[in-house]
Design brief:
It is a single chain. By secondary structure, the chain is α+β, with helices and mostly antiparallel strands. It has eight helices and eight strands; from the N terminus they run ααβαβαββαβαββαβα. The longest helix is centred in the C-terminal third of the chain and has 33 residues. The radius of gyration is 25 Å and the shape is elongated. One of its GO terms (cellular component) is late endosome. It comes from Micrurus paraensis.
């Protein structure tokens, strides 16, 4: 009835934080609010399966957190499910129980976020922020210190006072020991803060994309070699 409908609208608009926009016309709403409205409409009738296409596109960080929280709450019950497509790995990691990654239209992997990180993450990521922009000598000294802790560490792109390294799994025998040595390096050098974490879902995607590109390039090369060989074997009368 009408009273129940008003209560549902009140609950959904409160959960998605757009109560103040309820009296506005849709065409006057911002892109982020329209996304929230689309999600709210999809929830009416409590469907068992819902398809969501990049539900947080166009939203600011606070609004994204609101809708991600609402999505998790809406599909907490095992009687309901959603299939969500997104280009944002942060969104997939925040909302999904299981993730499938497609590269160039091909399914490369599927599983829980932790499973994908463990299987395809290929190690850890170290990021250090120095208190001031380091000169070349300091960079070299710090790199030697990092290589002493992690012999196979690979430098990544650096920005101003931030230095990054990719750390392979075989270099991390003990997380406790790794953090202990990093703390020593922090005090020995001019390091303001550092983070040492498992590969993110976005880094997993990048690695899989690189593998796909290599496979595609290899396949193209094989096709070219096959074509050249068959042309050489042709007999012309």
């Amino acid at each position: 009835n009408e009273s129940d409908l008003k209560e549902v609208i009140k609950c959904i608009s409160s959960a998605l934080d757009f109560k103040e926009q309820l009296q506005k016309k849709v065409k006057k709403l911002g892109a982020g609010i329209k996304r929230k409205l689309c999600f709210a409409l999809s929830m009416l009738g409590s469907p068992h399966i819902t398809l969501l296409d990049e539900p947080s596109t166009g939203m600011d960080p606070k609004a994204k957190q609101h809708i991600w929280k609402a999505i998790r709450a809406a599909f907490k019950s095992k009687k309901r499910a959603a299939i969500l497509t997104t280009h944002y790995m942060e969104e997939a990691e925040a909302v999904c129980d299981r993730v499938a990654i497609l590269v160039s239209g091909k399914l490369r992997c599927i599983g829980t976020v932790q499973h994908l990180k463990t299987k395809f993450g290929k190690g850890y990521f170290l990021e250090m922020k120095l208190k001031e922009v380091p000169d070349l000598q300091m960079k070299e000294q710090l790199q030697r210190a990092v290589l002493h802790i992690f012999p196979n560490a690979r430098p990544q792109e650096s920005f101003s006072s931030i230095l990054s390294y990719k750390i392979p799994k075989e270099d991390v025998h003990s997380l406790a020991l790794s953090f202990s040595r990093l703390e020593e390096a922090k005090h020995a050098f001019n390091i303001e803060e550092y983070s040492f974490s498992q590969a993110t879902l976005e880094q997993v995607f990048v690695e899989l994309a690189k593998e796909q590109e290599e496979e595609d390039s290899f396949g193209t090369l094989n096709s070219m070699l096959w074509w050249e060989r068959t042309q050489g074997e042709r007999v012309v009368f």
